[in-house]
Amino acid sequence: MSSRYRELGVDVEKRGIEAFKGLIRGLYPNAFCVIHRDPSDPSMGLVLHTDSAGSKPIQAYLHWRETGDPRWFRGLAQDVVAMNLDDIICVGARPTAFVDYIAFNTLHIDREALLSEMAKGFEEVFTTLEKLGVDILFSGGETADLPDQLRTLDISGAILGRVPLNRVITGDAIRPGDLIVGLRSGGKTRYEEGENSGIMCNGLTLARCSLMKAEYVEKYPELTHPAGGRYRGRYSFDEYLEELDMTVGEALLSPTRLYAPIILRVLRELPEGVHGLIHNTGGGLTKCLRVGRGILYVKDSLPEPDPIFRLIQREGHVDWSEMYRVFNMGVGFEVIVESGYADDVIDIAEAYGVEAQIIGRCECSPEGNGVRIESSYGRFLYP
């Protein structure tokens, strides 16, 4: 089956990274993040993790070039913090410190305007997290002027966390009969200022190329690879669509949801019931394949995908099977629990204004991990 995402140069399977596995000496090979024993305290584990906002900054760049307003860059701060923070939460780690890395093409970017907005964005996201009981030390980072290496800009970061080794969520406890509780990525929480499309940070290359007009590439060739035909959409960034209840550009730049406050409370109140935690980033609803052993994740009670995903599928002519493998499809985070704890997780999430529901269950899979999705758009099996 052809892959539109791979045609655009992105491999969701990340083939090649296996070359690094022999170099990593983590304590738990199947955990969501690498965990090392803290040499100064053998009872504690250290988690050092890095991630980026993907190609979302390119969409923000387009908005800035079209409007002259650098505030479009501000939300990228939350994107890069959430992508890192909500990953380390998946092993139960509490964050300690965060650093950023902002690289850009100085021939196209107003560095002072960009950095000013990024600073405001980081201040906003760390203030929000502090109010929700998640304190993170912001240790600055690095900026890089790379006019010969980058066409536009790249925003990434790294986070340090710690977790008691007797409280690590490795995923090894996942077993048949466990339930999968899905936390929505769209809508509006009690700690967010506006409605969120739910797209987070993954699949933005596919989304941009499926929705944005080709005229933008003619106007700003630095937006994409020189190969023609990548931007095939018919929308302007500021075009309002009733089905989205926002503009197309606002939907693409909706900030990645912060799940850490919810999950830390779940771990505090239900320490014995949580067997696995999955942040549905690269790999979409198949992200869980990397966690647990011999488990078939059956997701047969998924919510209807948010409008942005249906728009991308329709306009990009993307196979539904690929959509579920690239995007979170409205479920940004999964909590895998013993059956008796599912309602408690839902209650905690809903206390923050985040919709949650049981989306499936775990079954035995002797041949290795698998995901089976049963939806109104088809039945899909991923080995």
Counting helices, strands and paired strands, the structural category is: alpha+beta
Q: How would you sum up the global shape?
A: globular
CATH superfamily: PurM-like, N-terminal domain
Quaternary assembly: single chain
* Widest β-sheet, arrangement of strands: 9-11-6-12-10-13-14
Mean pLDDT: 96
Number of helical segments with 4 or more residues: 11
Number of strands: 14
Beta-strand percentage range: 15-25%
Low-confidence stretches are none
Task: Provide structural commentary.
The protein has 383 residues and is of the alpha+beta class. It has a single domain, classed as 2-Layer Sandwich (60s Ribosomal Protein L30, Chain: A), CATH 3.30.1330.10. Helix content is 27%, strand content 25%. The protein is built from 11 helices and 14 strands. The strands form 3 sheets. It has a 7-stranded mixed sheet, sandwiched between helices. Strands 1-2-5-3-4 form a 5-stranded mixed sheet. The protein has a two-stranded antiparallel sheet with strand order 7-8. α3 packs across α4 and α8 packs across α11. The mean pLDDT is 96.
Question: Which descriptors apply to this entry?
Answer:
383 residues, alpha+beta, 60s Ribosomal Protein L30, Chain: A, seven-stranded mixed sheet, five-stranded mixed sheet, 11 helices, 14 strands
